[in-house]
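Contributing: when you submit paired examples, paste them exactly as shown. First protein:
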Amino acid sequence: MIPNASDALFWLEAHPNCLKGIGRGIERETLRIRPDGFLATTQHPKSFGSPLTHQWITTDFAEALLEFITPVYNDIDHLLTFLRDIHRYVSNELGDELMWPMSMPCKIHPNQKIQLAQYGSSYIGQMKTHYRQGLKNRYGALIQMISGIHYNFSLPLSFWKEWAGVYNLQDGKEAISEGYLQIIRNYYRLGWVIPYLFGASPAICPSFMNGRESTLPFERSQNDMLSLPYATSLRLSDLGYINRSESSLDITFNNLSEYISSLKTAIQTPSEEFVAMGIKDKNGNWLQLNTNILQIEDELYIPIRPKRMTLSGESQSDALQRRGIEYIEVRSLDINPFSPIGVESEQIRFLDMFLIWCALADSPSIDSMGLAFTRQNWNAVITEGRKFGQTINMDYGKTKYSISEIGHRLLHDLNRIAKTLDSLSQIPHYQHVCQHLKASFKNPDLTYSARFLHKLKSQGLKSTGLSLATKYRTQLSQEALEILNNHHFINEARRSRIFQKKIEIKDKRLYRLHEMKK
């Protein structure tokens, strides 16, 4: 059935204080759109500062794709208020532009040129743009316009002290890293519950399929929308973020050294497809950074990743190798269209409980074949998760269980974790989440995707998106800032521009020195 966590849950109930100090951070992506619902063609607003060096407001793939980044906080309400402050400020600075409230892109003209994100003239700034040119040529620009929520999660040192006998971060880096890899393996096994409950991309605009083929049996609605009747998250399907060379990556999560070795191999191994593309065109324009399976480590598109804060000039894999895993990045959350900021506290609390459960439950090693098998379960939920009687294959297909049955058993364990977490605040927030989501496992019509698809079918994708974007802009722009104020944003924009300029001046000096030595 599901991994056993019974003994570990008894242990947790006896050590509730070990969960004090959970670290949480959020990254939210959103497209800027025009008042007519089409993609904005303007550059990243100058009033926001430099997207290369700004702490909170940057760009992802394109100039029109905003990304908001929060600091790490222990308090969920403070975290979400900070994120809301960013949205409030941006809403007032965008003029007549709006923020698209869905994961799958708005309508994009077939001939519209999507401008890649620009980061200035420095070496690192130019490389970031060239990397995005590579993404465009490898996977297509439209795929890169998909938005999501990334949730960064870390357990406190107090947990690792009690659970793994760790007394300081440096000496305990192996034990902590193994603990996070245990979370990742269990997330692969049962993480499909995230798109089942919170997936919110059951439909797409036909413009997204421009020039593309798919075997998915889409239904076309009268208001020009493509959907699947039981889909939960098309963002996570083969239409969305996947590496076409995933089968050749052979990346597993049984120990950190193997993970790092596999990742480094992927960024050093040429791909026949990308070798044929070349690095530059005949005019010397960049087509991609290199011809390897992955240009850089960030190109690894997986539902959850081990992470470590890096030092200047340090790669992610080197940071992991030297200091171990610091936190995990959950990448399976769609933009929540029912929230002005794309995510709600209910989702954060469920993720907290589920990730803690993943740390406690038995987590045997899992090979590449096992990971491929878990992907089949994910695909079943992503494309047909709300289908009546939908089952999940466990133990390499030896047994099948309904989603409802697995959800019921999982929530039984999560409710025990909820009581432990609630004991720290004396407020039953987590227990309320368990009780509320219990109904969604019994009735798929209560999931985010079902509720949103009903809205889309009645109003149309473009109309729904514009209506929500306008509603949220009005709501957010009328709210007062709570944690930050306008001076914080103005000063950060100024600081980011100065910092970018310093980087560019330093690069010019290094270039002159290099030329003088020739």
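Second protein:
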Amino acid sequence: MSGLCGWIGQDGSVTENLQLARRMAGPLARFDGSVVEAVAGRNSGLAIAASGDNKHIYQKNGFLLALWGRANFLEPRLSQLARAEGVAKTLADDWRERGEKALENLTGAFSFCILDENTGEAILAIDRMGICPLVYRNDGGRLVFGSSADAVNLHSQAKPDIAPQGLYNYLYFHMVPGPDTIYQRQRRLLPGEYLIYRKGNVETRKYWEMRFQENEKRPFQELKQDFMEVLRSSVREAVGDQQVGAFLSGGTDSSTIAGLLGEVSGQPAHTYSIGFDASGYDEMEYARIAAKHFSTRHHEYYVTPDDIVSAIPQVAAIFDQPFGNASAIPAYYCARMAKADGLSRILGGDGGDELFGGNVRYAKQHLFSLYGQTPSVVRKGIIEPLVFGIPGGAALPLVRKARSYIEQASIPMPARTETYNLLERYGSREVFTSEFLSTVNPGNPADLLNEIYHDSNAVSLINRMLAFDRKFTLADNDLPKVAMACELAAIEVAFPLISDEIVAFSLQLEPHLKLKGTKLRYFFKEALRGFLPDDIITKQKHGFGLPFGVWLQQHKPLQALASDSLSDLKSRRIVRSDFIDKLVGQHLNEHAGYHGTMVWVLMMLEQWYRQR
């Protein structure tokens, strides 16, 4: 994945500290072969593993700075200095002059650290959308950090003890959401956040957050013109001077990127699509429509069950904590095609849904919210007594549906988004051993959901959900999924649809332009009408879904891998043995697609343990 790592607050010779910094950077360079550069003092050290314009490092008079990623300065004067003297020196000088205000000038995808041996202070920061992560551990007199927990754990004083709450949250979310990690005493910076370390104490602050301007009214044509300009600018910036291709699922986002890539590069774009020979899972038809429309150099690969068996241990190992999004595997095979073609960077279409209102659940939650807008006297005095008072109503389809709607609509947000959560459906006491449950807080996921959902200035439901998904869907899930899949394929990835320019544009859109009734991504689709094929604009949302549950019932090697993994997981005394037996012996036969998700989540947990 490339990245940076280091520490402050542990004495040693400069030579010893350089050796430790390089050793910590090993996991960051293991797949793409990035060159590691390290600097150190007598009380600190840092290293960065990256290539080309992603690596920036500076050291002078006990002041150490490293920046990983593609950062830019908003102020023209600083941009000119960066071109002449380098990003690292420009940021170092700006920080010395203005301190934390220097963060306001930074834009792009980056993480950086500043270590000042003269004062014993340190600063860590990551970009606004959380594309370039940072993990840290504070032991009072020492701060250790890295782009991956694997790097932090290689510090001589780190103790990588598993956090039971992290395991619980993994089964709930199918990943471990920040700021927590799978390890005790380790934390992750949240998007748009920075950390100050002084005298053994850590404080985190926001330097940027999503501030929605919900009453900004502008003519549609003016918005469309500005939108197309920022789209082109963002794709052009993501391309840089690299040999670039694009993921192409056939959805709105990836098709837009593919079309713009050809436009800004002046030549047919290289596009890459994954298919599955399984009914209801293959979306290649739409990828081909987009490829033909934009005359791309299109490449396809059909993932097989054997591919899944081969990739599972590799994918589990590439993540620094358990990760249960099965779409990482098709993303890996897609990225591998681009790497084999000699490309150095691939563009992902992630983020459009979470900025412009494209997820199906947004429309669903809008429908539920309508019930809450009905006067209470009508709901409680007329509707509910009527619907729930019909004798034998549970056997009548329409009444049963009405009851389900009322029950779900009566649950407050954001808990309503989790009504289909697998762990909630099974029940934590049915899934976990009693001894494990005694070590965790089962209410922690709900607390985290509430904290993030209500930490927004948005008034509208759609914008609250978008701010919510910026963290849980993007920073915690989709971005690491694609980034780590690309790391495994040894190719760099960029996400032009979540550039700071596009994010700023989306924040100014009126809520109804994102979700108009139940019409998803209303403005985005209308603005691109005529650019995208109509079939792409009107298609139902799909994505790189993996037919794991279906294949699990048919493919013997996949069955053997899952069975072996779940059998070994039993011995860890986290998940109940009788639940695992029931899951694979009964639930999976009842609904392979639904219950196969939990088989996958548990299997990837065991596979991650094996690769530690």
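If you have annotations for the second protein, write them as plain sentences, like these:
Residues 461-488 form the longest helix (28 residues).
The mean pLDDT is 94.
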